[in-house]
Amino acid sequence: MSDDFELDTDDLARRMDGAIANLRTELASLRTGRASGSMLEPVMVDAYGSMTPINQVGTVNVPEPRMVTINVWDKGLVGKVEKAIRESGLGINPQLNGTIIMLPIPELNEERRRELTKVAGHYAESARVSIRNLRRDGMDQIKKAKSDGMSEDDQKFWESTVQEITDAHIKIVDETLETKQAEIMQV
Question: Is this model's pTM higher than 0.85 or not?
Answer without folding.
Answer: no
